[in-house]
Amino acid sequence: MKKISVGKVLAFTALAGVGAFVAYDLIQLKRGYAKYQDDLNEEASDRIRSKKDSREERVKRTLDKNIECFEKAMEDYGAKIRNDLDESNIDKFKLRPILEFKGNFYRVGTLVFEEEKDPYIVINAIDNERFAKIGVMEEIEAYPYDMPEERIREVVAEVLEAEL
C-alpha cells in the first residue's frame, strides 16, 4: 500500500474545504440573485398596475364629471329632473335620473364596447311617459367620455332641439 503524506492529506482537505465554501457562496449568490430578480419583477408589476389604476381612476373621474356636465347642460337648457319616473330601476341598477324636456324624456348613461377600452357616454330618450316610467328608452347617440365641456354643451343643444 502506498503511503500518502500528511502534507497531501492536508492539501486535499484544504482544497475540499475551499471547494465547499465556494460552492456554498455560489448557492448563496444564486439565491440572492433570484430574490433580486423577484423583487425587480414585483416592483415592475407594481408600477404597471399603478399606472393602469391611475389611468382607470382618471377615466372614471372624467366620465363622472362629464356625465354630470351633460345633465347640468340639459338642466341649463330647461330640462327638469323627474324623480317620479323609473324609481325602482334607478336604485336597483344605479341608473342616472330621467330628465324631461318639452314632453321628451332623457337619461345620460354609459356604454362600453368590448373591443374598446374607454367608455362612451350615451344619451337615451323616449317620447312616451309610460315607457319612461319603467325606464324603456332608445339610445340616441354615443359620445367619447372625454369630450370637452364646450362640446358637451353643443351636443346637448343639438339633442334637445332635435325631434325624436
Describe the structure.
The model has no long low-confidence stretch (mean pLDDT 83). The chain has helices at residues 6-76, 87-93, 129-134, 149-161; strands at residues 80-82, 98-101, 104-111, 120-126, 138-144. The radius of gyration is 34 Å and the shape is rod-shaped. It has 164 residues and is α+β, with helices and mostly antiparallel strands. A hairpin with an 8-residue loop joins β3 (104-111) and β4 (120-126). Helices cover 59% and strands 18% of the residues.
The counted number of beta strands is 5
Q: Give the H and E element order.
A: HEHEEEHEH
- Average pLDDT, rounded to a whole number, is 83
What low-confidence regions span 5 or more consecutive residues with pLDDT below 50? none
- Percent helix, as a range, is 55-70%
- Alpha-carbon Rg, integer: 34 Å
Strand order of the largest sheet: 1-2-3-4-5
Beta-strand fraction estimate: 15-25%
Descriptive keywords:
164 residues, alpha+beta, five-stranded antiparallel sheet, 4 helices
Write the layout of secondary structure elements.
Elements lengths: L5 H71 L3 E3 L4 H7 L4 E4 L2 E8 L8 E7 L2 H6 L3 E7 L4 H13 L3
Antiparallel strand pairs: 1-2, 2-3, 3-4, 4-5
Helix pairs in contact: 1-4
Entry summary:
By secondary structure, the chain is of the alpha+beta class. It is 59% helix and 18% strand.
